[in-house]
Amino acid sequence: MFSNTLRIIARHSQERSTAMGGIVSRSVASQATFQTKLFKLHRLESGPSTEVTVTRDDALKFYRDMQMIRRMETSAGNMYKEKLIRGFCHLYSGQEACAVGMEAAIRKDDAVISAYRIHGWTFVRGASVESVLTELTGRRTGNARGKGGSMHMYRDNFYGGNGIVGAQVPLGAGIAFAQKYKETDNITLALYGDGAANQGQLFEAYNMAKLWSLPCIFICENNGYGMGTSIDRAAANTDYYTRGDSIPEIGRAHV
What we know:
three-stranded parallel β-sheet; 8 helices
């Protein structure tokens, strides 16, 4: 069953690439320009440009990566329902563009640390689909040799998922502190969900990062629900991009 799942993903990926290749061969455009929605700003006079240009090669890569994550997660969900995956299985379905977009904006030697919804992030940071799925099924060929499961996968400069809600955010500040101490020009992305946004340790991390001017970007992957609880029921202020107090921030509508 597991081998069949990998073969199906590979076949769909090849079929998609072939079809896309046919479309590309008939196109003469080498890039495309789009207008995006305005960002919400906090302590900033101006935000990122609303005009975005992407090359054909980059657009195809982004699309393939998002498709691969979606198919991987669909397969993982089916395997979970068939009890081939035991324990937790936190899927990244619907948030593929978050990981693919952010990964495209940073370098491989920049650091990323996230919560427990990390299958997609593990893939874009360089892990194979097979290593993610075999980790989920507890096999020694898995990303963490079958011992980490859904919430604990790692790559170089990817400090993985963390099972304790919000605990990864101060760790991210610590990684950024190490980068500054070593005088590198790298940055750290510290990701968390809206369910962790009210944790006290987040605000402590914000304060230290601002006080010490750490190269850390705190990112709320807001999908509207912390597990099964709506953000409107859990938070008095759902404008999470304003939570950093003196830290300049930008916001978008939740994914």
